[in-house]
Amino acid sequence: MARSFLYLSLLLPVLASAAPSSEAGAVRRFALLVGVNDGGPGRAKLRYAVTDARSFAQVLGELGGVQPQDQLLMLEGDRAALEAALTRFKAMVAAAKGSGARTEALIYYSGHSDEEGLLLHQDRFGYRELRQTLEQLPADVRIAILDSCASGTMARQKGGVRRPAFLVDASTAVRGHAILTSSSEDEVSQESDRIGGSFFTHNLVSGLRGAADATGDGKVTLHEAYQFAFHETLARTERTRGGAQHPAYDIELAGTGELVMTDLRGTSAVLVLGDDVEGRLFVRDEPGRLVVELNKLAGRATELALMPGRYTVVREARGASSRAELVVGEGGRTLLADRAFVGVTGELTAMRGGAPVAGGAALPDAAPGGGMRHRFVNLGLFPKLQTNDWLGGGDVSNNLSVSLGVSENARLDGLALALGANFTHGPIHGVQMATGGNVARDAVSGAQLAVGGNWASGRVEGIQASVGLNVARQGGLLAQMAVGANLSNASTAGLQMAVGSSWVEGDFDGYQASVGLSMVRGHLEGMQMGGVSYAASARGAQLSLVNVGGDVTGMQLGLVNVAGKMNGLQLGLVNVANNLESGVPVGLLSIVRNGQFHVEVFGSDVNFSNLSLKVGSTHLYTTLVAGIGSVAGSRGPSHWSLGLGVGGHVPVTERLFFDVDVVSNNIFVWDKALEGNRMLQQARLQFGFQLASHLAIVAGPTFNLLHTTDSTPVGTVSRFASSSQKEFSMWPGVQAGLRI
């Protein structure tokens, strides 16, 4: 998937050199990380710009020496937000500079861009502006990293030429700037569902975690990180639809010594890939996220700095796939040797928009040395009291498993039945049915049916149905149906239905319905229904009592609708949008930040004093009107009114405009509280002239229809109309006043 990413930020040199220096201990590093998925109208919304910014921030915090108070994260902001972040970032760096410490500043950007600059929602931030901002930072070393289309244009702003994939500088006291870009000036930058991010940032983060440590000294320099990211990005994009992607750079650094980006020696957990391990390795954490990817050569060990936890390493080598599972402990070094890998018969599974993943959901039918055995049927009461254990034990795959209590097997290709629970360590190709619960520690292709709950640690391609809870840790193509709740920790396509709640941590393509909460933390393509619906971004429909969306294209239908950016229809009692690009809100009260919000004070032939509020989009508004009036012969107010209406706003020139609307008013007797039997229907044409940004003159004609609700004479409320003994009265009127 071609992706416009501009990662303008932070690769912050970490730890200047091992050589003694008076400056080496007084380095303070700052990082500004920007991730924006939305590049504006006409551009596909990215999926992983924000994810990449978070990943880069994490590795800088863990290994790059950036303290939490020195890290600034800006996600999904527009130009104004970026300008504010840059101003704050400059002030942070300047404050440290005043203390006399050596400072290093890094700006990272991931998002859309073109040949002229970064694209932030509907705004553009030019490369020239960005370069000037970088040069004005009061830091000894300034680094910008851009992961986006045509970002190489930034590296060529001063006429530089592309150099080989080689970065060397020599100094413990480096001064100057470095600009790294994910692609050249005429190339697209790409992201992939397979890796859950952009190719360039993914490879850069992998390198900073240790994959780029070519010298084996436990430190990753700027040279090593860039060279690793260049070659890996080029190798992984040569056959993609977007074409080969060539990272580029512009360096103006001077000094002596290597500029260190990350130091692996002080990390709390290290995975050591033994010198006998070779092949392309994919290291995934327990939720299934790809943490590091590298091509490991035999003959030298490689150390990777990771967070403590359980990991799965899948290896592709010589046309075969194998995998190993291990736990990386706190404060230790965990060795992964070649003998730990077990061959897999993996079918290739392709994630949407990504490359096939070998063996991502399969355990072996027959491991080397007979590790996995097959037995057609398993009968028993509990683990250790079942035929899988009585007839030899070890890892056994079954086609049929029947248990009065709890069954356990290594793999299932068929049917498992249990009154208590079914527990399968490997993948399932078939059906698990239990009164209690079903657990699959790997992928499920089929169905899990339980009264209690269903749990799948891998992807699910099929059905999970329960009275309690359904969990798919790695998403998939599935249908989840529960009285309790449905949860998917990764991108999902299919159906979720629950009485309680349905929750997707990643993207969701399909239909989500809950009586309680329907939640999509990523991008929704489809429909949500329920009590409350939320989607970080959506293309489709939200049909709930309360709808909340970040970036919505389609429709929101409910009592209350809230959107960050709205393209489409909001239909409800209350509609709120921070930015209404196209479409219309229809409701009792519609508040649009970039739309209309006006207060009008005016007089009319009906009321000598009126106050109205107009709120809505650029061209459609709702108006609330309250007024006090008197008729000829009265010494004080004779009536008051409350009205509600809808109308349209038409700008003619920069200063001239007109509004046309219809308003329905209740007319109340002044001294009789809410007692009133008369209704005033008005059609109003109002012309306006803007005197200043927040002041306009408004005036125009009205057509009025006064009628009663109980067949009594209407009398009169206007000096332009005579008193009537009929049930209704009509007349032309006028109004004039000021708009604030």
Helix content: 10-25%
Sheet with most strands: 20 strands, mixed
Please identify the top-level CATH class of the largest domain.
Alpha Beta
- Count of discrete structural domains: 4
CATH fold name of the largest domain: Rossmann fold
Oligomer: single chain
**Number of helical segments with 4 or more residues:** 7
The best one-word shape is flat
Query: What class, by secondary structure content?
Result: mainly beta
- Parts with pLDDT < 50 across at least 5 consecutive residues: 1-25, 155-172, 346-370
CATH architecture of the largest domain: 3-Layer(aba) Sandwich
The whole-angstrom Rg is 33 Å
Could you write a compact summary of the structure shown?
The chain is mainly beta.
Offer a few descriptive terms.
single chain, 740 residues, mainly beta, Rossmann fold, Immunoglobulin-like, 4 domains, 20-stranded mixed sheet, 8-stranded antiparallel β-barrel, 7 helices
Description:
The chain is mostly beta strands and 740 residues long. Helices cover 11% and strands 52% of the residues. It has a 20-stranded mixed beta sheet that branches. Strands 45-46-47-48-49-50-51-52 form an 8-stranded antiparallel barrel. A 6-stranded mixed beta sheet has the order 3-2-4-8-9-13, sandwiched between helices. A hairpin with a 2-residue loop joins strand 50 and strand 51.
